[in-house]
Amino acid sequence: MGRKNRAKQNDEDYFASLGAPVAAPEPAAEEEDEEALYQKELAKAKAKEEKRLKAEREKREKEATAERARLMMEKRSRKKKGADDDDDAAAPEPAAAPEPAAEAAAMPAAAAATPAALSPLTKVLVFLRPYSAEAGGGGGGVLARIFAALWALLSFAAGAAAVDAADAALRLANPDAAAKMDAEDERKRTTMLFCPETGSWFPRDYAQRGNAALRVAEDGQLERWVKNLKTKSKDAGAWTKVRDGDGWASAPAHLGTRDEDLADGDVQFFAAFDGRAFECTAWIASHLCSGAAAKELGAVDGAKPVFAVAFDDVDGLVATMPRRVLDLLNRKSGGEVDKGKKAPKEKLSRADKKAKKQAYGR
Questions:
Q1: pLDDT for residue 248
Q2: What CA–CA distance (Å, rounded) separates 220 from 213?
Q3: DSSP character for 2?
Q4: SS (H, E, C) 327-351
Q5: Going by DSSP bridges, is the β-strand pair 276-279/268-273 parallel, antiparallel, or unpaired?
Q6: Residue 91: its pLDDT value, please?
Q7: Closest Cα partner for 295 from 255, 337, 247, 263?
Protein backbone atom coordinates (compact mmCIF):
# COMPACT_ATOMS: atom_id res chain seq x y z
CA MET A 1 0.00 0.00 0.00
CA GLY A 2 1.35 3.39 -0.94
CA ARG A 3 1.99 6.28 1.41
CA LYS A 4 -1.14 8.09 0.20
CA ASN A 5 -3.41 5.09 0.86
CA ARG A 6 -1.94 4.53 4.34
CA ALA A 7 -2.65 8.15 5.29
CA LYS A 8 -6.20 7.85 4.05
CA GLN A 9 -6.70 4.66 6.07
CA ASN A 10 -5.36 6.31 9.18
CA ASP A 11 -7.74 9.21 8.75
CA GLU A 12 -10.67 6.88 8.37
CA ASP A 13 -9.65 4.96 11.48
CA TYR A 14 -9.34 8.21 13.44
CA PHE A 15 -12.77 9.54 12.43
CA ALA A 16 -14.33 6.13 13.04
CA SER A 17 -12.89 6.07 16.53
CA LEU A 18 -14.53 9.41 17.30
CA GLY A 19 -18.01 7.93 16.77
CA ALA A 20 -17.32 4.69 18.65
CA PRO A 21 -19.02 4.38 22.07
CA VAL A 22 -16.72 4.74 25.04
CA ALA A 23 -17.05 2.07 27.81
CA ALA A 24 -17.97 3.86 31.06
CA PRO A 25 -16.67 2.60 34.43
CA GLU A 26 -19.03 0.55 36.56
CA PRO A 27 -19.03 2.02 40.10
CA ALA A 28 -22.35 0.39 41.11
CA ALA A 29 -20.72 -2.58 42.80
CA GLU A 30 -18.36 -0.34 44.78
CA GLU A 31 -21.23 1.91 45.91
CA GLU A 32 -23.25 -1.09 47.09
CA ASP A 33 -20.28 -2.35 49.16
CA GLU A 34 -19.85 1.04 50.80
CA GLU A 35 -23.57 1.27 51.63
CA ALA A 36 -23.59 -2.22 53.19
CA LEU A 37 -20.50 -1.38 55.25
CA TYR A 38 -22.12 1.84 56.44
CA GLN A 39 -25.31 0.05 57.47
CA LYS A 40 -23.28 -2.60 59.29
CA GLU A 41 -21.30 0.01 61.23
CA LEU A 42 -24.53 1.85 62.04
CA ALA A 43 -26.18 -1.34 63.36
CA LYS A 44 -23.08 -2.13 65.41
CA ALA A 45 -23.06 1.36 66.98
CA LYS A 46 -26.77 1.10 67.72
CA ALA A 47 -26.36 -2.30 69.41
CA LYS A 48 -23.46 -0.97 71.47
CA GLU A 49 -25.51 2.01 72.61
CA GLU A 50 -28.47 -0.23 73.53
CA LYS A 51 -26.15 -2.49 75.51
CA ARG A 52 -24.74 0.50 77.38
CA LEU A 53 -28.22 1.82 78.20
CA LYS A 54 -29.34 -1.63 79.36
CA ALA A 55 -26.30 -1.97 81.63
CA GLU A 56 -26.98 1.45 83.14
CA ARG A 57 -30.65 0.58 83.67
CA GLU A 58 -29.79 -2.73 85.35
CA LYS A 59 -27.25 -0.96 87.53
CA ARG A 60 -29.83 1.60 88.66
CA GLU A 61 -32.39 -1.14 89.38
CA LYS A 62 -29.83 -3.12 91.38
CA GLU A 63 -28.90 -0.04 93.38
CA ALA A 64 -32.56 0.74 94.05
CA THR A 65 -33.20 -2.85 95.17
CA ALA A 66 -30.19 -2.77 97.48
CA GLU A 67 -31.30 0.51 99.01
CA ARG A 68 -34.86 -0.74 99.49
CA ALA A 69 -33.60 -3.92 101.15
CA ARG A 70 -31.31 -1.88 103.42
CA LEU A 71 -34.25 0.23 104.56
CA MET A 72 -36.30 -2.92 105.18
CA MET A 73 -33.51 -4.38 107.33
CA GLU A 74 -33.28 -1.18 109.34
CA LYS A 75 -37.02 -1.13 109.91
CA ARG A 76 -37.03 -4.78 110.98
CA SER A 77 -34.08 -4.14 113.33
CA ARG A 78 -35.88 -1.19 114.90
CA LYS A 79 -38.99 -3.33 115.36
CA LYS A 80 -36.99 -6.01 117.17
CA LYS A 81 -35.37 -3.46 119.49
CA GLY A 82 -38.62 -1.60 120.15
CA ALA A 83 -37.22 1.59 118.66
CA ASP A 84 -40.47 2.68 117.02
CA ASP A 85 -41.64 4.43 120.24
CA ASP A 86 -38.20 5.35 121.61
CA ASP A 87 -36.90 8.74 120.41
CA ASP A 88 -33.48 8.20 121.97
CA ALA A 89 -32.94 4.99 120.06
CA ALA A 90 -33.94 6.65 116.80
CA ALA A 91 -31.44 9.53 117.21
CA PRO A 92 -28.18 7.76 116.22
CA GLU A 93 -29.79 6.26 113.09
CA PRO A 94 -27.96 8.56 110.57
CA ALA A 95 -24.56 7.58 111.95
CA ALA A 96 -25.28 3.85 111.92
CA ALA A 97 -26.91 3.74 108.50
CA PRO A 98 -24.67 2.44 105.69
CA GLU A 99 -24.04 4.62 102.66
CA PRO A 100 -26.61 4.52 99.83
CA ALA A 101 -25.80 2.32 96.88
CA ALA A 102 -25.32 5.32 94.55
CA GLU A 103 -22.68 6.88 96.84
CA ALA A 104 -20.96 3.54 97.29
CA ALA A 105 -20.75 3.12 93.50
CA ALA A 106 -19.34 6.65 93.14
CA MET A 107 -16.66 6.03 95.79
CA PRO A 108 -15.22 2.53 95.25
CA ALA A 109 -12.25 3.26 97.49
CA ALA A 110 -14.47 3.89 100.52
CA ALA A 111 -16.60 0.84 99.72
CA ALA A 112 -13.51 -1.34 99.47
CA ALA A 113 -12.27 -0.04 102.82
CA THR A 114 -15.53 -0.86 104.64
CA PRO A 115 -15.03 -4.67 105.00
CA ALA A 116 -11.59 -4.07 106.57
CA ALA A 117 -13.25 -2.49 109.64
CA LEU A 118 -15.38 -5.59 110.32
CA SER A 119 -14.68 -7.91 113.23
CA PRO A 120 -13.30 -11.40 112.50
CA LEU A 121 -16.67 -12.97 113.38
CA THR A 122 -18.52 -10.63 111.02
CA LYS A 123 -16.07 -11.46 108.20
CA VAL A 124 -16.83 -15.15 108.74
CA LEU A 125 -20.55 -14.34 108.61
CA VAL A 126 -20.03 -12.46 105.33
CA PHE A 127 -18.36 -15.57 103.88
CA LEU A 128 -21.09 -17.93 105.13
CA ARG A 129 -24.06 -15.70 104.30
CA PRO A 130 -24.41 -16.88 100.63
CA TYR A 131 -24.90 -20.44 101.94
CA SER A 132 -27.86 -19.50 104.15
CA ALA A 133 -31.44 -20.43 103.27
CA GLU A 134 -32.29 -16.77 102.61
CA ALA A 135 -29.62 -16.58 99.87
CA GLY A 136 -30.61 -19.83 98.17
CA GLY A 137 -28.45 -22.25 100.16
CA GLY A 138 -25.47 -22.13 97.77
CA GLY A 139 -26.28 -25.53 96.23
CA GLY A 140 -27.00 -28.99 97.55
CA GLY A 141 -23.49 -30.31 98.11
CA VAL A 142 -22.10 -31.60 101.39
CA LEU A 143 -19.83 -28.58 101.84
CA ALA A 144 -22.73 -26.20 101.18
CA ARG A 145 -24.84 -27.92 103.83
CA ILE A 146 -21.96 -27.68 106.32
CA PHE A 147 -21.57 -23.96 105.63
CA ALA A 148 -25.34 -23.48 105.98
CA ALA A 149 -25.29 -25.18 109.38
CA LEU A 150 -22.33 -23.03 110.46
CA TRP A 151 -24.19 -19.91 109.37
CA ALA A 152 -27.27 -20.89 111.41
CA LEU A 153 -25.14 -21.52 114.50
CA LEU A 154 -22.88 -18.47 114.28
CA SER A 155 -25.63 -16.03 113.28
CA PHE A 156 -27.69 -17.11 116.31
CA ALA A 157 -24.69 -16.63 118.60
CA ALA A 158 -23.55 -13.33 117.04
CA GLY A 159 -26.88 -11.52 117.33
CA ALA A 160 -28.94 -9.25 115.09
CA ALA A 161 -26.37 -6.39 114.97
CA ALA A 162 -23.59 -8.62 113.60
CA VAL A 163 -25.98 -10.18 111.05
CA ASP A 164 -27.06 -6.73 109.83
CA ALA A 165 -23.41 -5.67 109.49
CA ALA A 166 -22.62 -8.84 107.54
CA ASP A 167 -25.59 -8.21 105.21
CA ALA A 168 -24.45 -4.63 104.57
CA ALA A 169 -20.91 -5.77 103.77
CA LEU A 170 -22.19 -8.59 101.55
CA ARG A 171 -24.15 -6.11 99.42
CA LEU A 172 -20.88 -4.39 98.55
CA ALA A 173 -18.78 -7.52 98.15
CA ASN A 174 -21.27 -9.89 96.46
CA PRO A 175 -24.23 -8.15 94.76
CA ASP A 176 -25.43 -11.42 93.19
CA ALA A 177 -25.83 -13.10 96.58
CA ALA A 178 -27.56 -9.97 97.90
CA ALA A 179 -30.00 -10.07 94.96
CA LYS A 180 -30.83 -13.71 95.75
CA MET A 181 -31.44 -12.76 99.39
CA ASP A 182 -33.80 -9.97 98.33
CA ALA A 183 -35.71 -12.30 96.01
CA GLU A 184 -36.06 -14.97 98.72
CA ASP A 185 -37.18 -12.37 101.26
CA GLU A 186 -39.79 -11.05 98.82
CA ARG A 187 -41.05 -14.60 98.18
CA LYS A 188 -41.48 -15.26 101.90
CA ARG A 189 -43.18 -11.93 102.52
CA THR A 190 -45.79 -12.60 99.85
CA THR A 191 -46.37 -16.34 100.32
CA MET A 192 -45.58 -17.16 103.98
CA LEU A 193 -46.28 -15.93 107.52
CA PHE A 194 -43.65 -14.40 109.84
CA CYS A 195 -43.68 -14.81 113.63
CA PRO A 196 -42.16 -11.74 115.35
CA GLU A 197 -41.60 -13.65 118.59
CA THR A 198 -39.53 -16.56 117.23
CA GLY A 199 -38.38 -15.14 113.89
CA SER A 200 -39.76 -18.24 112.14
CA TRP A 201 -41.72 -18.48 108.88
CA PHE A 202 -44.92 -20.53 108.60
CA PRO A 203 -46.74 -21.63 105.41
CA ARG A 204 -50.14 -20.39 104.30
CA ASP A 205 -52.25 -23.51 103.79
CA TYR A 206 -54.82 -22.74 101.09
CA ALA A 207 -55.99 -26.37 100.82
CA GLN A 208 -59.49 -26.32 102.28
CA ARG A 209 -60.69 -29.71 101.07
CA GLY A 210 -63.01 -31.29 103.60
CA ASN A 211 -63.52 -28.04 105.55
CA ALA A 212 -67.23 -28.19 106.31
CA ALA A 213 -67.16 -24.78 108.02
CA LEU A 214 -66.13 -22.83 104.90
CA ARG A 215 -67.75 -22.43 101.51
CA VAL A 216 -67.94 -20.15 98.45
CA ALA A 217 -71.39 -18.72 97.75
CA GLU A 218 -72.96 -18.46 94.30
CA ASP A 219 -71.82 -14.84 93.98
CA GLY A 220 -68.19 -15.89 94.72
CA GLN A 221 -68.23 -14.51 98.27
CA LEU A 222 -66.45 -16.52 100.98
CA GLU A 223 -68.72 -17.65 103.81
CA ARG A 224 -68.01 -19.46 107.09
CA TRP A 225 -70.30 -21.40 109.38
CA VAL A 226 -71.09 -19.90 112.81
CA LYS A 227 -72.81 -21.39 115.79
CA ASN A 228 -76.14 -20.21 117.04
CA LEU A 229 -75.15 -19.32 120.58
CA LYS A 230 -78.76 -18.93 121.70
CA THR A 231 -79.54 -22.64 121.55
CA LYS A 232 -77.92 -25.91 122.61
CA SER A 233 -78.91 -27.69 119.40
CA LYS A 234 -75.96 -29.16 117.49
CA ASP A 235 -77.69 -28.59 114.17
CA ALA A 236 -78.35 -24.89 114.75
CA GLY A 237 -76.04 -22.54 112.85
CA ALA A 238 -75.84 -20.04 110.02
CA TRP A 239 -73.51 -18.86 107.29
CA THR A 240 -71.92 -15.42 107.45
CA LYS A 241 -69.81 -13.53 104.93
CA VAL A 242 -66.04 -13.35 105.38
CA ARG A 243 -64.29 -10.04 104.75
CA ASP A 244 -60.67 -9.59 103.75
CA GLY A 245 -58.59 -9.31 106.92
CA ASP A 246 -60.88 -11.46 109.09
CA GLY A 247 -59.34 -14.17 111.25
CA TRP A 248 -61.34 -16.70 113.22
CA ALA A 249 -61.18 -19.91 115.25
CA SER A 250 -63.05 -22.96 114.02
CA ALA A 251 -63.51 -26.66 114.64
CA PRO A 252 -64.49 -28.00 111.18
CA ALA A 253 -64.57 -31.61 112.35
CA HIS A 254 -66.86 -30.83 115.31
CA LEU A 255 -69.49 -28.39 114.07
CA GLY A 256 -72.10 -27.54 116.67
CA THR A 257 -70.03 -28.87 119.59
CA ARG A 258 -69.91 -26.54 122.57
CA ASP A 259 -66.53 -24.93 123.19
CA GLU A 260 -66.10 -26.53 126.60
CA ASP A 261 -66.59 -29.97 125.05
CA LEU A 262 -63.84 -29.48 122.44
CA ALA A 263 -60.26 -30.63 122.86
CA ASP A 264 -57.52 -28.03 122.39
CA GLY A 265 -56.33 -29.86 119.28
CA ASP A 266 -59.77 -29.62 117.67
CA VAL A 267 -59.47 -25.83 117.36
CA GLN A 268 -57.91 -24.40 114.18
CA PHE A 269 -57.31 -20.84 113.05
CA PHE A 270 -58.16 -19.44 109.62
CA ALA A 271 -57.81 -16.05 107.92
CA ALA A 272 -58.90 -14.43 104.66
CA PHE A 273 -56.80 -12.16 102.45
CA ASP A 274 -57.11 -11.16 98.79
CA GLY A 275 -60.37 -13.08 98.53
CA ARG A 276 -58.83 -16.40 99.62
CA ALA A 277 -58.98 -18.27 102.92
CA PHE A 278 -55.99 -20.12 104.40
CA GLU A 279 -55.29 -22.15 107.53
CA CYS A 280 -52.71 -20.62 109.92
CA THR A 281 -53.03 -22.52 113.20
CA ALA A 282 -49.32 -22.89 113.92
CA TRP A 283 -48.62 -19.24 113.10
CA ILE A 284 -51.37 -17.81 115.35
CA ALA A 285 -50.56 -20.22 118.18
CA SER A 286 -46.86 -19.23 118.03
CA HIS A 287 -47.40 -15.66 119.21
CA LEU A 288 -51.05 -14.57 119.40
CA CYS A 289 -53.67 -17.04 120.64
CA SER A 290 -53.84 -20.75 121.45
CA GLY A 291 -56.68 -23.17 120.95
CA ALA A 292 -57.28 -23.29 124.70
CA ALA A 293 -57.55 -19.49 124.82
CA ALA A 294 -60.05 -19.49 121.94
CA LYS A 295 -62.16 -22.00 123.87
CA GLU A 296 -61.88 -19.83 126.99
CA LEU A 297 -63.13 -16.88 124.98
CA GLY A 298 -66.05 -18.90 123.64
CA ALA A 299 -64.99 -17.78 120.16
CA VAL A 300 -64.77 -21.10 118.29
CA ASP A 301 -67.00 -20.68 115.22
CA GLY A 302 -68.27 -17.48 116.80
CA ALA A 303 -69.98 -14.67 114.94
CA LYS A 304 -67.18 -12.10 115.44
CA PRO A 305 -63.57 -12.47 114.23
CA VAL A 306 -60.93 -13.34 116.82
CA PHE A 307 -58.06 -11.49 115.11
CA ALA A 308 -57.31 -9.41 112.02
CA VAL A 309 -54.58 -9.66 109.39
CA ALA A 310 -53.01 -6.80 107.41
CA PHE A 311 -50.05 -6.56 105.04
CA ASP A 312 -46.82 -4.96 106.27
CA ASP A 313 -44.02 -3.88 103.91
CA VAL A 314 -41.38 -5.66 106.01
CA ASP A 315 -42.98 -8.70 107.64
CA GLY A 316 -45.74 -9.46 105.14
CA LEU A 317 -49.04 -10.41 106.78
CA VAL A 318 -49.27 -9.34 110.43
CA ALA A 319 -51.94 -10.60 112.85
CA THR A 320 -53.41 -8.47 115.65
CA MET A 321 -56.19 -9.02 118.18
CA PRO A 322 -58.86 -6.35 118.79
CA ARG A 323 -58.79 -4.59 122.14
CA ARG A 324 -62.13 -6.06 123.14
CA VAL A 325 -60.78 -9.59 122.66
CA LEU A 326 -57.58 -8.84 124.59
CA ASP A 327 -59.54 -7.35 127.47
CA LEU A 328 -61.90 -10.31 127.60
CA LEU A 329 -58.96 -12.73 127.53
CA ASN A 330 -57.24 -10.82 130.35
CA ARG A 331 -60.41 -10.86 132.44
CA LYS A 332 -60.83 -14.61 132.05
CA SER A 333 -57.16 -15.28 132.80
CA GLY A 334 -57.15 -12.99 135.87
CA GLY A 335 -54.94 -10.32 134.28
CA GLU A 336 -55.31 -6.56 134.19
CA VAL A 337 -57.76 -4.91 131.82
CA ASP A 338 -56.76 -1.79 129.90
CA LYS A 339 -58.52 1.14 131.62
CA GLY A 340 -58.57 3.14 128.40
CA LYS A 341 -61.51 1.15 127.09
CA LYS A 342 -64.57 -0.30 128.79
CA ALA A 343 -64.35 -4.03 129.43
CA PRO A 344 -66.99 -6.23 127.82
CA LYS A 345 -70.02 -6.96 129.93
CA GLU A 346 -70.00 -10.40 131.49
CA LYS A 347 -72.92 -12.61 130.48
CA LEU A 348 -74.86 -14.10 133.37
CA SER A 349 -77.11 -17.13 133.44
CA ARG A 350 -80.75 -16.89 134.44
CA ALA A 351 -79.98 -18.28 137.88
CA ASP A 352 -77.21 -15.76 138.44
CA LYS A 353 -79.43 -12.89 137.30
CA LYS A 354 -82.20 -14.04 139.68
CA ALA A 355 -79.76 -14.33 142.58
CA LYS A 356 -78.39 -10.85 141.81
CA LYS A 357 -81.91 -9.35 141.84
CA GLN A 358 -82.66 -11.03 145.16
CA ALA A 359 -79.43 -9.58 146.58
CA TYR A 360 -80.68 -6.10 145.65
CA GLY A 361 -84.01 -6.83 147.35
CA ARG A 362 -86.10 -7.02 144.16
A1: 95
A2: 16
A3: -
A4: HHHHHHCCCCCCCCCCCCCCCCCHH
A5: antiparallel
A6: 46
A7: 263
